[in-house]
Design a protein that fits this description.
The chain has about 290 residues and is mainly α. The protein has one domain. The chain is built from 13 helices and two strands; from the N terminus they run αααααααααββαααα. It has a two-stranded antiparallel ribbon. α4 runs antiparallel to α5, α5 packs antiparallel against α6 and α6 runs antiparallel to α7. It starts with a helix and ends with a helix.
Length: about 290
Amino acid sequence: MQLLFSLLGTEILTALGMLYLMLGMASLGVGVKLRARPHSQLRDQVNAWWWIFPVVTVSLLLHPLGATLLAVLIGLLALRELAPFAGRGFVVPAAVVFGTALFLPAPVAMAALPPAVALTAAIYLRMRGAAALAWLLWLVLCYSCRFLPLYDSLPLDAHARLAWLFYLYVLTALNDVAQFISGTIFGRHRIAPGISPNKTWQGLLGGVAVTTALSLTLGRYLHLAGAAQLAICALLLSLGGFCGDLMFSAAKRALGVKDFSQLIPGHGGILDRVDSLVVTAPLLYFLITHLLEK
């Protein structure tokens, strides 16, 4: 236990413990409510977090290398999910692109990837082919994953850099959960029925409200920023996560699939799980470096 405190610090470890406690209570509550329905999707979704949380926890414990390892894991799993849509000859060049983007000096990677994404998007809009869309999603993922190791280059002390990364993971995940629960309970008015019929204005607003409260509580507890700045971060991250989810939902409709794979019971594939992170990871990095430093 003392080793954990030394690796993560008292504040992060305590917050992490509270998350595991909340997950345990959610699992117990769902188990009691749905004990007659052992194969409920809600039960699967809650139980799936028991292996998602430990993966993220190990990534934090291995900081600063953990962020890079997490990016590599996401890339490997996503490569497997996109390969069937991209056709022959995708895996090797895609792996080379990912490795190059991840390990090139950040200024070079950040300069090269956006034009590549824009060009691939133009090709897809012209051809509307599954292979072009798979490459577009892959390049967007490469760009986003490149930001995870960059959090350790922020001009902050080591504890603050790790705290911001923890903040990113928690807000991204719980924003998704809050939007899902709010939409399920209160959802009436759909936002984009042609893309994702389950997305509602009530779900979005519920996610913003919960994420704002969480951002203020966690952010102040970890001494990350002032209340106004944390509220701005919460609003933008909640909207960004929603946009990422909607973007990947549109891609799935174009590809004719419900989920990218069945890797995570109740959640789909890795791309179904990190669709929000694809937007929130670079967004929070830019907020920290441009908004919070002022």
